[in-house]
Specification:
alpha/beta, 2 domains, 12 strands, aromatic amino acid biosynthesis
């Protein structure tokens, strides 16, 4: 077996990753497993990306990027797609034959696709959308929701300009339709953690979306179900959508 096409995931730590399994199965299904390989590159600092790219320059074709490097990676790339530049985060890198690199954001497409096709979308479209967290995924989610015409409130424990606190959110919960958890709270192994919203204020007018996919049914979603929310959306479909978009970019 001779690997001519190497792909992988950059992040730290990577214990919760789904990408290696997903792409390994994709290569097998496409009959590419003899030449295509997907690995996890757990790098303790973002500068290690340059050494990795140099060491694997003959075979490395593309990378996914996860926590905590979606923003830190940007200055190290040769080019940034305009949509990713607007969002301010990169989660997919295409590596060209000449070694040049270009960053994209497929979180945007993965999330937008799931919202547009969710049967509950018309029920919360006219209300405020709330995004919990402020990382790279949050930036993509906010851009997607705004492009779909929703007014977005950004919530943070330490709010800056343009953000609100969890206390502010509690006071205005009646105006809210959609609440998206873009934080890692609830992700394995810390499955008993959840965002600090006032769950007692949730009603059937609220819809919860969690981008965490391990476990599928997070404490955030479970607490919403217990309060009788209108609906929930688990994180795996967004992941599938962004992974498929990454594959499309790598093969374009």
């Amino acid at each position: 077996m001779s690997i001519s096409h190497l792909y992988g995931l950059l992040g730290y730590p990577l214990g919760h990753s789904f990408s290696k399994k997903y792409f390994t199965e994709k290569f097998e299904n496409l009959g590419l497993s003899e030449s295509h390989c997907y690995e996890q590159f757990e790098i303790p600092q973002i500068e290690d990306f340059l050494a990795l790219k140099s060491a694997q320059k003959d075979v490395l074709k593309g990378l996914n990027v996860t926590i905590p490097y979606k923003q830190q990676i940007m200055p190290l790339l040769d080019e940034i797609d305009s949509a990713a530049a607007k969002i301010g985060a990169v989660n997919t890198i295409k590596i060209y034959p000449d070694g040049k690199t270009k960053g994209f954001n497929t979180d945007y497409w993965g999330f937008r696709q799931t919202i547009e096709t969710w049967e509950a979308f018309p029920k919360f479209k006219s209300k405020k959308a709330v995004v919990l967290g402020q990382g790279g995924a949050a930036k993509a989610i906010i851009a997607a929701l705004e492009d779909l015409g929703l007014e977005v409130w950004k919530v943070s424990r330490t709010p800056e300009e343009g953000q609100i606190s969890y206390e502010d959110l509690a006071a205005a919960m009646a105006e809210v339709g959609l609440i998206v958890n873009s934080t890692p709270l609830g992700m394995y192994p810390k499955i008993d953690t959840f965002p600090p919203i006032d769950y007692g204020l949730l009603t059937s007018q609220h819809y919860l979306y969690d981008i965490v996919y391990n476990p599928l049914r997070t404490a955030f979603l479970e607490k919403g179900i217990a309060q009788g929310v209108g609906g929930i959306y688990e994180g795996l479909e967004m992941l599938h959508g962004q992974a498929d978009k990454a594959w499309e970019i790598w093969n374009a």
